[in-house]
Every structure is written in structure tokens, then in C-alpha cells.
Amino acid sequence: MKKRHFITIVAIAAVGGCIGNPLTYRDQPLVAKVEKGMSKRQVLEIAGEPAMTMTRKAQPGTCFEYLFTHKGERQPYMVSFDTHDIVDHKDFRTCAFWDEEQEDAKVPFYMDPGYGK
To answer: What's the pTM?
Structure first.
């Protein structure tokens, strides 16, 4: 099994079955105040340290992953930064899942040298 597919499966399994309702968190400062174009420092001032930091593979940059918890339900939230540490994406997904989508979008599956292995 290809490594990136394994990472996606693990990420989905880790979050699967325990995802909360994103509307529950819309008023959280991280969700409400962080916008594209902000610096990494601004995000840290608003949201504090992330639960995890990841180096992006599909596109150069980094990704912060936060985890909201409400009434026993967990909801991941990611903030992605370009090479200049500027927010270029935010979403209610894990960094690994989003990065995998970006990687898959770059190469059609039939042109992937690992396809069929």
C-alpha cells in the first residue's frame, strides 16, 4: 500500500466516528478570527500553540493542526502556511488529509509511477 494512502486511512480512522459539528466551533477565535493572508505569528497570538505542526509535502510550507473537543466529540481544524509563513488555507480537516488531497490533485492517478503496485 502506498505511504500516502496509508496516512490518509490512519487520519480518517483517528478522526472517524468522533467528528463534531463544525457549526459548534464557528465562534472559536481560531475559526472566527484567523483569515487567509495572516502571519504565523498572528495565528499563534489568536489560537496559541497547535496540537501538531506538520511540514507540507504537496506544496512547500507548514500546517498547524488544532483539536476542538465538545461534549465528548472531537473536531480537527487545520491552518496551512506557505513558505513565507502566511495563511493560505484553513479547514475542518486534518493537515495530513488536506495535504494528501493536494498531492493527489497534482498527478492523475494513471500517471502516478506507483499506480498498480
So the answer is: 0.72
Residues 38 and 87 sit within 8 Å (Cβ to Cβ) = yes
Answer for the pair 87, 72: CB distance below 8 angstroms, yes or no: no
- Residue 15 pLDDT grade (very low, low, confident, very high; cuts 50, 70, 90): very low
Q: How is residue 27 written as a grid cell?
A: 465562534
Grid coordinates belonging to 90? 484553513
Tell me which H or E stretch contains 95. Answer: helix 95-106
Going through 19-61 in order, the beta strands assigned E by DSSP cover 52-55
Tell me how far apart the alpha carbons of residues 108 and 21 are, in angstroms, rounded to a whole number: 32
Q: Name the pairing type of β-strands 52-55 and 62-70.
A: antiparallel
For residues 77-86, give the mean pLDDT. 97
